[in-house]
Amino acid sequence: MKYTHYTIEPAHNSVELALYGDEDAVVVYGWGVYPRSSVLAGQQSKKYMDKYGSVELALKDYPNAEVLDHIAEAGNTFDHLSDTPDYYH
To answer: Residue 31: pLDDT above 90?
Structure first.
């Protein structure tokens, strides 16, 4: 998958904080669009790329990433899918 941009976001839960070290820990995500073969086709994708101990360290590997002070949601929905089953009785 090709990524259109990257974000650097704060590690957002106790598991990540425990794994990554401290409150300065951040996570890098790659953003793109789900392919036609996906049930989420055409919607934004957000993929975990890596974790770092600080924003500065993350920027060394992802110098063009957008640094956020919050967690960004992809906002995907399943509204385009039918509520009826895919099988017949």
So the answer is: yes
